[in-house]
Amino acid sequence: MTQLLSDVRLPQFYKVRQKFDKTHMDSETIVSVLRQELGQYSFFRGERIAVTAGSRGIANIGLILKTIVGFLRDSGAKPFIVPAMGSHGGASAEGQKELLAGYGITEESIGCPIASSMEVKKIGRTVDGRNVFIDKAAAEADGIIVVGRIKPHTAFRGPYQSGLMKMMAIGLGKQYGASVCHAEGFQRMAYNVQTFGTAILKYANILCGVGIVENAFDETKKIKVMRREDIESMEPKLLKEAEQSMPRILLPACDVLIVDEIGKNFSGDGMDPNVTGSFATPFATGGLRAERICLLDLSPETCGNGMGTGMASVITNRIFKQLDVNKMYINALTCKNLNGSRIPCVMTNDREAIQFCLKTCIQADILYPRIIRIFNSQFVEFMWVSEALAGHLPENAEILSGPETLAFDSEGNLTDRLPRQRGQRKLR
Question: Which of 20, 58, 128, 232 is exposed most, by the fewest CB atoms within 10 A?
Answer without folding.
Answer: 128
